[in-house]
Structure formats: structure tokens, C-alpha cells
Amino acid sequence: MNVISCQNVVKRFNNFTALDNVSVNARKGTIFGLLGPNGAGKTTLIRIINQITIPDSGTLLFNEKPISPSDIYKIGYLPEERGLYKKMKVGDQAVYLAQLKGLSHSDATRELKQWFVKFGIQAWWDKKVEELSKGMAQKVQFITTVLHKPELLILDEPFSGFDPVNVQIVREEILKLKSEGTTIILSTHNMESVEELCDDIALINKSKLIVTGGLNDIRRDHGNNRVEVLYKSESEVKIDDSEYFTIFDQSVVNGARRMILDVNRSAHSSQVLGALIGQIDIVSYRELIPRMNDIFIKLVKN
Q: How far apart, in Å, are the Cα atoms of 64 and each of 7, 51, 191?
């Protein structure tokens, strides 16, 4: 089931088209990567999902029904632009934000103090927000975003400002939320995080949807259908091209001989291996799938 479904969404600001017939779906209990260069239209789509603005045309479904104002209480949104009231105490600020999402003062205080302990910021409860570092302020905002257990969690550059240790803490919490059934939209320029976390992605560029689908499917579709073969030999073995592959490159890596093959798309791994067995002593055989960073650059430049 799709928790959020945007179909043929168009949004214009005067003569500027921010979204041009964009359709994306985020499945329940998955992490959906929303990708694109700055100015592509990602933030506009996020604002439409949050009902901050409305589309000029197109449909928006939440749990397969037209989205309604009450659905906003089922959504958690961590914007890229951070904003806390600097003169308020940290605990008072967090409780206030939690109450905006429907929690009582007592429930919010109890839940927040548990989260503050988990994130190691309990000592900052009675200090002013302006005393917080960027990373600590980000922790507070992440906590208040997830506190009401939203069905849909929208995270815009959630790792910005964190050191590697805290990146790992937040990453683990995101995966835990996913395992509990939360649907997460992750907007980020960090392709490593996309590969580690996302099930599905959509790439938007210049207001248009360029590609969407399963992460692994997209990586394979945009690859060159190459495989790496490592083999043992004192010297380079001369292997002729076959009906299943051609030799793209040969080299030595960490003492092992390495061969890159361009495999015909109709060929099976068993056929390729069958053509090699008897000629070389194979150590490993693996498909070379392109990195999302390379795919991103390739598609945005086209």
C-alpha cells in the first residue's frame, strides 16, 4: 500500500514551473529517497505533501484517500532550514513542539526525557536553545519530529551538522522507525546514505521527474552490464571474447589478476562462468553495479 501518492502534480509560481507533471509513490514501511540538485523542485513537493502549499493540478493521496487537513497530525517533518526559538529553554521548546502534534504536556515531557537520555542531551533540558551547538539543536529537532510516532516521516538533509558518531545514531533510529512500520521520505544529496537506507527513489531535475523505482533496479538499469572476475595466475591469461562477453580490461589488484567483462544482456552468469572455467582458476565473480553518485551525475547532466 502507498502511504503517500502524488499523481501528475503541477506547481507554478508566476511564470516559473516548480513541478511539471510529477508522479511519485512512497510505499508503507519503506524509505523513499527524494533526490535532485538544488532548485529541482524537491522542497516544493515536500511542502505540498505537508499542505504548506497546494498544487495547481494533480492529485495527492494519503493512505490511498484524498489528503485532508487532519492528516498533518500523522506526518512528521524535519525541514532543511533549522529553526528553534533561541531564548526558550530547550525542554520548554521541545514540549511546546510536541503539543502542537497533539501530545499532552505530561505525555510529551515523559517521552521527551526518555529521548533526551537516548541522545545524550538530558543535561541541556533547562538550558537556553541559543546555548546549543548546531548538532545538539539538530538532535532536539529530530526528536520533536518523531516523538508523536508519525505514519509518514519526511526528513530533509537529516544528517547535516552531525559528526560521524551522531550520524550513525540517527541512521539507526531511522532504520528502527522503518522496522516499526513508519514510511520515510528522505531528501538528501548524500548518495552514500541513499544506497545504505533507501528502498525506492525518485530523481527530480528542472521540475521534471527523471526516474523513479526500486533503488537496486535503477542501479542495474543504468549500469553497463559488467562483471569483475578475480583469478589466480602467475601471468596474465589470454582469453578470447566469446558469444557471452567481451574483455573490457585486465589488471592486477592486491596480488590477484582482475578481469572486467562486458556481458551480453541476454547471457546468464552460468554461461559466462562456463566459458571461463577450464581456462582460469576463478577466485571471485561479481556484478559491477554503478554507484548512485555516478547515476545522479549522469542523469542530471543529460
A: 12, 16, 30
Residue with cell 523513479: 212
Q: What are phi and psi of 113, to 5 degrees?
A: -65, -35
This prediction has a pTM of 0.86
Q: In angstroms, rounded to a whole number, what is the distance separating the alpha carbons of residues 130 and 127?
A: 8
Architecture of domain 2-220: 3-Layer(aba) Sandwich (3.40)
pLDDT at 85: 85
Fold for the domain defined by 224-301: Alpha-Beta Plaits (3.30.70)
In three-state secondary structure terms, 159 is coil
pLDDT band at 162 (very low <50, low <70, confident <90, very high): confident
Report the pLDDT averaged over residues 21-37.
Answer: 96
Alpha helices in 161-268 (DSSP H): 164-179, 191-197, 215-221
